[in-house]
Specification:
single chain, alpha+beta, seven-stranded antiparallel sheet, 38% helix, globular
Length: 279
């Protein structure tokens, strides 16, 4: 069993075997992670704010939320009512889910279950099974004594049952191994074009192999993915500069360019004049 601890800018993160994750924060902390695994998050104190596609969900003390994998969700962890932020995250790896699935009675699986489309799913509050699951883990937050591998596996299994007892559609979301969940490519790129992601990462985050991603991308654009991204970033920069009042040095970074010289060159090639002419 492996334990990792990270302390940075008031945030302490303890990760046990990449499964049991605890976070603390005295000040508001924001990040935009891409969830590569499904997560079940429980807020012990403070507030967890999740924003995805313009929709914001706030999780408070004693509440639990499911975060579906392969999505970029803006996450803000912040104190509330004088209490520091404290939460526990459980992650469900594909390997663990497959092993769990092998132990199940397949005859008991609901035939009409459908995969969840939402990325953030708030679970009902005051559920005894949820409270029991997470309160049994809180002693490990401050004691410094790590849980055993056996206990971690039991807690992850409890988390799976919490989801299955919440909505039968979680059967399909958690145990669909035939092919990864596919996210609409254009929707994903329009929301994430400004981030420094490789084509391999984008393929993975949209639920595809690299070869499948390239094949699917050809169906929606005559441009290769990298050229599409540059064109999208330039169009976004053009709109920002047309609005006025914004510095080129800020705009080029906001839309995802890492080099100002490259931005000038690409902008002039696409629009025929320097971005400075917009100011």
């Amino acid at each position: 069993m492996q334990k990792n601890k990270t302390i940075m800018e008031g945030v302490k993160t303890i990760k046990y075997s990449d499964i049991f994750l605890s976070c603390f924060a005295d000040n508001a902390q924001s990040c935009i992670p891409t969830a590569k695994e499904h997560y079940l998050a429980y807020v012990c104190s403070g507030e967890l704010e999740l924003t995805e596609r313009g929709k914001t969900t706030r999780i408070h003390n004693g509440e639990c939320v499911f975060i579906r994998k392969d999505n970029r969700v803006s996450m803000t962890k912040q104190p509330k009512n004088g209490e520091q932020f404290k939460s526990i995250f459980l992650s469900f790896s594909r390997k663990f889910l497959r092993e769990f699935y092998q132990t199940m009675d397949k005859k008991q699986l609901p035939e009409d279950a459908r995969r969840q489309k939402v990325s953030v799913y708030r679970l009902p509050s005051d559920r005894p099974d949820i409270v029991s699951l997470f309160e049994s883990m809180t002693p490990y937050l401050d004691s410094g004594i790590p849980p055993t591998d056996e206990l971690i596996r039991l807690k992850i299994q409890e988390g799976i049952y919490v989801l299955l007892n919440t909505d039968k559609n979680f059967y399909s979301s958690l145990f669909d191994f035939s092919e990864p969940w596919k996210i609409d490519i254009l929707d994903y790129l329009n929301e994430n074009y400004m981030y420094d992601l490789s084509i391999e990462e984008i393929a993975s985050y949209t639920g595809r192999s690299l070869a499948t991603f390239k094949r699917d991308f050809k169906k929606i654009s005559p441009l290769p993915p990298q050229k599409w991204l540059i064109k999208k970033r330039l169009e976004a920069a053009y709109e920002k500069l047309q609005e006025g009042g914004k510095k080129i040095s800020d705009v080029y970074a906001d839309v995802g360019f890492k080099n100002l010289t490259h931005f000038y060159f690409a902008y002039e090639r696409q629009y025929g004049y320097s971005p400075a002419n917009n100011n």
